[in-house]
Design a protein that fits this description.
Elements (H helix, E strand, L loop, with lengths): L1 E3 L4 H18 L5 H10 L3 E7 L5 E11 L2 E8 L5 H10 L7 E5 L6 H8 L3 E10 L14 E5 L5 H12 L3 H4 L7 H12 L12 E5 L2 E13 L2 E11 L8 H15 L5 E6 L3 H9 L3 E10 L2
Parallel strand pairs: 4-5, 10-11
Antiparallel strand pairs: 1-2, 2-3, 3-4, 5-12, 6-11, 6-12, 7-8, 8-9, 9-10
Helix pairs in contact: 1-2, 3-4, 5-7
């Protein structure tokens, strides 16, 4: 067994066509072929092809790094029995490295995941949630001493302080590089302000203050869900000493109101399932699960 970075075009097309055909058995409108070709040609991806024990090239893996150590791992083999062997090579040949990667596959089984875990990698089970009727937040009652302002580049450092302190108790679980220090989180805030993670929706990206002291933030970028324009929540953070007072829920509600006033009707986010408090909070606000996924943690 071995990995290749280049193969004959006809073999590559055969693997991609097989993935496309498989996807269409689940969704006739799927365009997996266009998706894979786009990813292969992207500047932030590397592609590896799998040669199995019978010396046949039967698989493709596309490693997409979106931000530093975070991205996607898109995998497919023509033969289902080759999946575990492919996962073995991707791990032992250091292709996954220290990255945190959303595992994207086209069969509903656990062969890749199980092999990654057998080899000592970790996983997180996550879910994407959406709220398609954010006009429900258009009338909310103000809370005394609470104020909001739009986030700007001048708030990068305070974003770093608030978000780092809000999330540091879960850093060993979430393992996201941007939360490792106040400085890294401030840089991430700066990247958001400079469109490096999509187009920020400034009207709904807010800094919350209590008695004029900054205590919380929410950051939202534009995305699409199918044909629907959606505001995607990148982060919600509240200093620990202000949690449990209903302020986090009020922050989200106020942001959703501003998002609706900016012309959006829907919002979405991703949350780790072990973060039960956050998941329950979003459920209480009317967000609904729509897609479960797994992130593989290298290192």
């Amino acid at each position: 067994m071995k990995l290749h970075t280049t193969i004959a075009p006809e073999i590559k097309n055969m693997i991609i066509d097989h993935a496309d055909k498989l996807c269409k058995t689940f969704d006739p409108n799927s365009n997996c072929k266009a998706f894979l070709l786009e990813k292969i040609s992207a500047a932030n991806t590397t592609t590896h092809f799998f040669e199995n024990i019978d010396s046949k090239i039967t698989g493709i893996a596309i490693l997409e790094i979106i931000d530093q150590y975070y991205g996607n791992l898109i995998v497919h083999t023509i033969e289902e029995n080759d999946e575990a062997s492919f996962a073995y090579l991707l791990t032992t040949e250091k292709i996954i490295g220290n990255n945190i990667l959303e595992l994207i596959q086209f069969r509903s089984n656990f062969h890749y995941r199980d092999e990654f875990l057998r080899l000592g990698l970790k996983e997180k089970e996550r879910v994407r949630m959406s709220h398609k009727h954010i006009q429900a937040f258009n009338e909310i009652k103000p809370i005394p001493d609470v104020s909001f302002q739009k986030l700007t580049v001048n708030d990068n450092d305070i974003c770093g302080t608030i978000s780092f302190n809000a999330h540091k108790h879960r850093i060993n679980i979430e393992r996201y590089n941007v939360y490792e220090s106040e400085k890294k989180r401030a840089k991430f805030a700066n990247d958001l302000r400079n469109n490096k993670h999509g187009n920020p929706i400034n009207e709904a990206s807010l800094l919350m203050s209590y008695k004029k002291t900054p205590i919380g933030l929410i950051e939202i970028v534009h995305t699409k869900h199918g044909e629907l324009n959606m505001g995607w929540i990148m982060d919600v953070a509240l200093l620990p000493e202000y949690q449990g007072m209903g302020l986090g829920k009020h922050l989200i509600k106020h942001s959703m109101k501003q998002l609706y006033n900016a012309g959006y009707t829907a919002a979405g986010l991703g949350v780790t399932l072990t973060n039960k408090n956050a998941h329950q909070l979003y459920e209480s606000l009317g967000f609904e699960d729509y897609e479960f996924f797994v992130e593989i943690i290298g290192g």
